[in-house]
Hints:
- This protein is mainly alpha-helical.
- It is 67% helix and 0% strand.
- The chain has one domain (12-89).
Amino acid sequence: MSKVTFNNKQSPFFRALKTKVDFYFSSQQFSSVGNATLLRKGIYLIASAFTLYTVLVFFTPPVVVSILLCALLGINLAALGFNVTHEGGTRAFPGTRG
């Protein structure tokens, strides 16, 4: 099965959008990558997911506590999916631009 790809880099819309976004970041003196706050958020989300998982698997809390921890783990994994993977995909983490 062949891989489907989209090459929109030469389209007028993509060039105009990229130009406007680059101008916005340079005129507002913003960096196009995240700062230490973004890095801390990513580390916090990953560490809390590992902690919740470890507590649930190795310490076997009571049923009510386990249900609450499972709900927190689900929310945490959703936050990882929406935040960390999105920022990683857009190469917004510090040190990911080449």
